[in-house]
Each structure stands twice: as C-alpha cells, then as structure tokens.
Design goal:
Blueprint (H helix, E strand, L loop, with lengths): L6 E3 L21 H6 L2 H4 L1 H10 L2 E6 L5 H11 L7 E6 L2 H15 L9 E5 L2 E3 L6 E5 H10 L6 E6 L7 H19 L6 E6 L4 H7 L4 E5 L6 E4 L8 H15 L5 E5 L3 H16 L7 E7 L5 H5 L9 E7 L2 H4 L6 E6 L2 E8 L4 E8 L2 H9 L7 E5 L3 H6 L14 H9 L15 H14 L12 H7 L5 H13 L2 H12 L11 H7 L9 H14 L5 H8 L3 H20 L12 H12 L3 E6 L2 E4 L5 E4 L12 E9 L3 E8 L2 H7 L1 H6 L3 H4 L1
Parallel strand pairs: 2-8, 2-9, 3-6, 3-7, 4-6, 7-8, 10-17, 11-13, 11-14, 12-13, 14-17, 20-22
Antiparallel strand pairs: 1-10, 4-5, 15-16, 18-19, 18-21, 19-20, 21-22
Helix pairs in contact: 4-5, 6-7, 9-10, 15-16, 17-18, 18-19, 18-24, 19-21, 19-23
Bound molecules: adenosine-5'-diphosphate (ADP) and magnesium ion.
Keywords: ATP-binding, Helicase, Hydrolase, Nucleotide-binding
Protein name: RNA helicase
GO cellular component, one term: nucleolus
C-alpha cells in the first residue's frame, strides 16, 4: 500500500537558483548574507517606491520570500514610518514571537527582542518605549483598536497572512480601512496599510480596499514531486510515522522532513514514536533529531526547529499548520501531509462551537507541498488518495463564517458600531450575527439586540481578553466572593489542557488523579489540582506532574494567564481577591452566570440533551462525571466524533437557572418542569 509513482508538478519553474539550495551543506552563512539571499532583497527599492506612493498596497509573494522578516526592516531603514510605529500582525502567537526574535537578531547590534523590535501577544507584552517594529497577533491589534480606534500609535500597519482569514484579521480589515479614512478626514498623520500573503484572491481584496494597487513578487521555488497513497488510510498518524521511516531509510542525511499533523497531543505522540523507533538498532538510516512546532510551546523550544541538524543527522519537524505559511524552516526536502487540520467550527443551528479535526483544502495542500521545494527539488507524500484529494474543498472558508461571533460582536460594539452594519470583507451569516447579539443581550452586555451602546457591564466585559461568557464569570465572582477560584478556573480553561491522558495508560492516569475528583465535576477537579500544585515545592514539581499525569508546561502557563487576568481585574476595580474557601456553590453559581447557555439535561440513561438547541449528547469518558448522571450540568467543551460528547462539566441546580437567567429560561424550559 505504498505511494504511487511520482507525478511531477512544477509549482514554479522560473528563477531557479540552485546555489541557494544548499543551506544545509554549507555550514555557516552570515545572517546578513542570508538576508541578501532572500527573493525580496532584489526588489526592495521597487517595493519601497510602491509603499511610498500608495496608501494601501497588497503584496503577494511565495512563502519564505522574506515578506514578514524583511519588509518591516526595509520600511524602517527608509524611515517611511516617520514618527510612528510599524505594526505587523500575525494570526498566530508562535509566529509573532519567533519572527520578532529573528528580526531582532537580524537587526543586530546586540539588540534583544523588546528593544527596537518587539512583540505583543495575549498574556505577554515584549515591547518598550523604544520599539518601532512591533509584531503582534491580530487579536492584540484588535484589542488595541478598542482603546484607540484610529490606531494613532502606528503610521504603518501590515496585515500579514491575510489569506488565513482568521476572524481577527477579517475584523481588522474593516478597522484599518476606517481608521485610515478617519485620519484622512481629520488631517491626522496618515495610516499606510499593507496586506501581505503568499496566496490570495487579489481582486477580492483590492476591490474591498477601494481598488488598491497589488504587487506580485516572483519567489524561488523548485519542483516538488507529489505522491498519493493508493488506498485510503484510516490511521493517518501511523501512516505518517511509517512514511517517515520509509524516507529515512533511503534519503541522504541532512535531507530534512516536515510532517503536518493537527495538534499538540497528536504531535507529541508522533514525536514519541519516531524517537523510540529511531533508537531501534534494526532501523537503518542516520541519527534523527525530532522537533515539534505547535502553539502551546514555549518560545525557546519553538526556535530550536530553525537550528540545522548536526552532521549525519536527519531533522524531522512535526508541526501544525503553523509551518504551512507562517514560518519557513530551512533545509526541508520532504513533506508528509496528513491532509488534516484542527479548525474552529461553529454551527449556528446547534449553537455549539468546537475545535474539530477536519480535511484541509486544496489551497492548504499546495502550500504544504511547496514547503518541500524551497531549497531545491523536493518531495511531498500525501497520506490520502488522489480521489480523496479531488473531493477536498478548493479554498478554506473564512473563520468568520464558521465561528461564534459573540467576542467579535462585543469588540465591534466597543467601537460604537453595530455588527449588522460593519464593513466586512465577507459578511458572516445573518443567523450567526443575530445569535451573537442575542447572546450579548442575555449576558447583559447590551439592553437590546439592536443597541450599539454597551451597558456598564458590557464595557467591563470588553476589557477582558476572553470570551464574553468567561468575562461575565469573573465579574460576577467579585460579587459572589469567589474571585480567586473563578480566576483559577477561567485561566485553566483559557490555555491548553493540563491533563495528560496517554492512550496506553488512560486508566492509570485516571486512578492517580482520582483523589482530586469532585462530585461537582471537572471544573472543581481542575481547581483542586491547581491548588495542590501550588503547595508542591519548586524542586518537586516535575516529579509531581509526572506522577499525576499533569502537563507542567501548561499548568505553569495557566498560572501566568491567571496573573495577567488578575491585573485586568484590578484595572476594572475588581481588586478584592475574595475566596469562597469550601463553599463551592458560589463558584458553581458564577459559572452558571456566564454559561447558562451551555447547559444539558438528562433525558434517559446517560443520554443528555442541550437546553439551548436540543442537541443530543453524552458525557465524554474523560470527564470525572462520566459514570454519574446528574440531572443538570453545564459544559465548556464539545467534542464531536461520530457522536457529540461534552467535556468540562459542572453539576448545577434547576433553581439556580431560574434565579440567574430568568429571561433565558422563559424560552428554554426544562423537560422536568414542562412535564
Ligand atoms: P515570508 O514571510 O515571505 O514567508 P519570512 O520573512 O518569514 O518569509 O522568512 C524569510 C527567511 O527567514 C526564511 O528563509 C526563513 O527560513 C528565515 N527565518 C525566519 N525565522 C527564522 C529563525 N528564527 N531562524 C532562522 N531563520 C529564520
Ligand atoms: Mg510570512
């Protein structure tokens, strides 16, 4: 069941530059020479001229051309930013941090990131008053726009990776367009807008930005041989590992491999298998250096993927779609494409939002393949058949058309605009906008769905970098006297999961964590784990986490998030860090205050139905409540496989729903009450 014979596809056969194809064999090229070798380098004068002449410009160039790292530096060297800053947005936190670090290195003179070059991502600000080139996630620029809607801090805003069409970038298109116009009308310092991408529908974007100029820079790419599997695989992870070792046996060392998988757990599992197998004396081939790349990783580890492998060693990088267009790893000759991606999806009809592993689009498949052809001719193994490929969507649907819009709607409202009339590049569906406004009304952020004025509560909610439902929990916790506990729970829910559930040791993991389990459910259980972790001495933490199957990195990250949220609370006059001690009813009521729209009711033997959209669901086996059947639960996560499962559960009482959300309960009666 091996791959079929190669089908050659030239992604681009012009501008070949074989001398550039040997990064890995030539050990040291100075960082400035590397800069001069990039395709954008020759075009810099032409680019600067275009940037000078146009207030809005679209720049299209192959991934790895040097758009993100070089263009901001060119603008800065030519002083085109004048007295303001250059802001460059990235859809992903990992990319913002790694690119800023790289640019700070390139800019040189012993500069560390945070000086002239800095970054700002959620829960981490690494800038100073000297910062002129600022990389930030699109979400951060959006937050900044809530405090200054015409973005006076910047004279140049670069919206990078525009093709990704994250919700935040999509809203930013509207915000920068408006800011530019307003600044023009008021005779303020002009705002230059640059839209960058490796691939996009230029006409669509150009039309939206008043028919602005677009420039296409020819990149350097080499042909990539594409291989499909002959039969479909149902276990793409195993196929990726097997394909890797097939390549590993045959390819020369220093021909590196990039594997695309979907998320942290899967990537770590696959890395583990490759590391173990590579040690097996029966496995032929050079040594293996296995790196991983995903959002929840600490910065230093992320940077290690850029280090060349030692001689006689093959580097394999296992990545989420971060490596598709956001970051370019030198030396890759082989790509293994699982064909899958984890994406946020939302169904207005069920009211549920979930992170779901799904098939990629053609656009993504071609971008992934292209990663193998940057330094020289490469190979891409697709872990799917040609006919499966044919069935994939052509392009990726913009996130705004498949996500819960409550957060976005709240952000738009802080600008005193109504989401119904916002100038979107592509309008989200009426249903989705309507639902978002309805949610905000139920949460008390606005008085009516048509209002463009936030209530004082709504204004407070908008100050938190959180889903409005979670902001509401924190704001209420102050009144209920359990802010400490609520902060912990919300922080734990805002990062990646702290629980490790290895496939082979699931029962063991659940057994050692049994002592933390609460009859109130998973959120209180998480709280118990966090409290216990806090009492463990610094030197024993690693062992403790290992013994209890807790991801130490993620729990430490949750702690940082908690500290940040505590700061926001203080700024919002929620300064008193009250604790409810053992009276956990207060905490559970707070959770209901924010999450009454996420409640499920028992119908019969372990079968539940969501109150909001009457979806039939069950408890996920990993929940500590899964053997019990409380009458009512609230949930924070939905996992969809062939069935719909709820995870992150807390038991609640019917009387609380009536007390806390009387308005909502008028239209969403409990079955037990109606019969
Ligand atoms: P683009 O935005 O056009 O995709 P980039 O500016 O991100 O291109 O990348 C230009 C080059 O910089 C790539 O060859 C990439 O390998 C290199 N690069 C980016 N970040 C790092 C890093 N942290 N270490 C080493 N090289 C890097
Ligand atoms: Mg880039």
């Amino acid at each position: 069941n091996g791959p079929s014979s190669p089908k050659k596809i030239k992604l681009n056969d012009e501008n070949r530059n074989p001398s550039n194809g040997q990064i890995n064999n030539k050990p040291k090229i100075s960082i400035q020479d590397q800069r001069r070798n990039l395709p954008v380098f020759d075009k810099r004068n032409k680019l600067l001229d275009l940037i000078k002449r146009h207030k809005t410009l679209i720049i299209l160039a192959e991934t790895g051309s040097g758009k993100t790292t070089q263009i901001p530096q060119y603008i800065f060297s030519a002083r085109l930013q004048e007295n303001g800053k250059i802001g460059i947005t990235q859809p992903r936190r990992v990319a913002a941090v790694s690119v800023a670090t790289r640019v700070a290195q390139e800019y040189g003179h012993g500069m560390s990131v945070g000086d002239t070059v800095g970054y700002s991502v959620r829960f981490e600000d690494c800038t100073s008053n000297k910062t002129k080139i600022k990389f930030l996630t699109d979400g951060m620029l959006l937050r900044e726009s809530m405090f200054d809607r015409i973005l006076m801090e910047y004279t140049v805003v670069i919206l990078d990776e525009a093709h990704e069409r994250t919700i935040h970038t999509d809203v930013l298109f509207g915000i920068v367009k408006r800011a530019q116009k307003t600044r023009e009308d008021r005779n303020l310092a002009p705002l230059k807008i640059i839209i960058m991408s490796a691939t996009m529908d230029v006409d669509h974007f150009s039309r939206y930005f008043n028919n602005c100029q677009a420039v296409y820079l020819e990149g350097r790419t080499f042909p990539v041989n594409i291989y499909y599997t002959i039969k479909p695989h149902d276990d793409y992870q195993t196929s990726c590992v097997a394909t890797f070792f097939k390549i590993h046996r045959e390819a020369p060392p220093n021909h590196d491999v990039l594997i695309f998988l979907t998320g942290q757990e899967e990537i770590e599992a696959c890395a583990h298998r490759i590391r173990m197998l590579a040690k097996d004396p029966d496995v032929k081939g050079p040594s293996v250096k296995c790196c991983t790349l995903y959002a929840a990783q600490p910065g230093a580890q992320q940077m290690s993927v850029f280090q060349p492998a030692p001689p006689n060693t093959r580097k394999v990088v296992i990545s989420t779609n971060i490596a598709e267009t956001s970051v370019t790893i030198p030396g890759i000759r082989y790509v293994i494409d699982s064909g899958m991606v984890k994406a946020r999806t939302f169904h207005p009809s069920t009211g549920l939002e979930l992170l779901k592993v799904q098939k990629i689009s053609h656009e993504q498949a071609w971008q992934r393949a292209g990663r193998a052809g940057r330094d020289s001719e490469g190979h891409c193994y697709r872990i799917y058949t040609r006919s499966q490929f044919e069935l994939m969507e052509k392009t990726t649907t913009p996130e705004i058309q498949r996500a819960n819009l409550a957060t976005v709607a709240l952000q738009i409202l802080t600008l005193e605009l109504h989401p119904n009339y916002f100038d979107f590049l592509d309008k989200p569906s009426k249903d989705a906008v309507g639902l978002a406004c309805e949610q905000l009304k139920l949460l008390g952020a606005v008085n009516s769905v048509d209002s463009i004025i936030l209530t004082p509560l709504g204004r407070k909610m908008s100050k938190f970098p959180l889903d409005p439902r979670f902001s509401k929990i924190l704001i209420t916790a102050q009144q209920y006297g359990c802010l400490q506990e609520a902060l912990t729970v919300v922080s734990l829910l805002s990062g990646e999961s702290i629980l490790i559930n290895p496939v082979t040791k699931q029962a063991e993991a659940q057994n050692v964590r049994q002592k933390f389990c609460s009859a109130y459910g998973d959120h209180v259980t998480l709280l118990n784990i966090f409290r216990e972790f806090d009492t463990v001495g610094q030197n024993n933490r690693r062992t403790w986490c290992h013994e209890h199957f807790i991801n130490m990195r993620n729990i430490l990250h949750a702690r940082e998030i908690r500290a940040q949220l505590e700061q926001v609370c203080k700024k919002c006059d929620l300064g008193v860090m009250s604790s409810c001690g053992g009276d956990l009813d207060r905490l559970r009521k707070c959770l209901v205050m924010g999450l009454f729209m996420n409640v499920a009711e028992l119908v019969r033997d372990h079968h539940y139905i969501t109150l909001d959209k009457k979806q039939s669901v069950q408890f996920h086996p990993s929940s500590c409540l899964h053997r019990q059947q409380p009458h009512l639960v609230l949930f924070t996560e939905v996992v969809q496989t062939n069935k719909c499962y709820l995870r992150g559960l807390t038991t609640v009482e019917a009387a609380w729903l009536q007390e806390i959300a009387p308005e909502y309960m008028k239209t969403h009666t409990l079955r037990s009450n109606s019969s």
